[in-house]
Request: fold
Amino acid sequence: MRISAVLLAGGESRRMGKDKATLLFRGQPLWQIQLNLLRKLHLEEILISARADPAWRPSDIQFVADDPPSRGPLSGLAASLGEMRGTHLLALAIDMPFMSEKYLRSLCDQIEAGRGVIPMIGDRAEPLAAIYSAEAHVDVVTALSGVEFSLQTLTNKLVKAGKLRALNVAKKEHTLFWNLNDPADLNLSQ
Reply:
């Protein structure tokens, strides 16, 4: 099994008031923090999904346009699953700087042929730090063609279909999933 990754950077950052990707966190832009994390995993490839090709994208990283660009991370996930070379796709949000290499490696170790893994905090899925199998592509595209663009709804369907396995997140690991949505969240870096 070969794992590709996508750094999801297509959000509008309305609450933050500026592009989260270029936001400095502990002295580095979020895009660089997340890309460095993904590079440590030595994956098949790393993609960046966004509405438009970001000026900060390194030349050795492939850009995948969100298609359509108005469906949130679902658009980036669908486009990346359609472009990847691997058998599985590790999706990681640009605004989740507390995620660790150790945790992502543990996710990679738990995939199976035709089945990815989805971390769960209680009954809520964490779809922006999860691994999807290539077989999930058809379901993601189908979700895009409907009127329900919720990743929670989609991941529930994928779990029921056997294309994702739900993994409970230990309480001590909940902070890995904290994301930065508005300026007050920057205080989390203290």
Notes: The chain has a mean pLDDT of 89. The helical segments are 30-40, 73-83, 101-108, 137-144, 151-160. Strands lie at 3-8, 24-25, 28-29, 45-50, 62-65, 88-93, 116-121, 124-125, 129-133, 164-168.
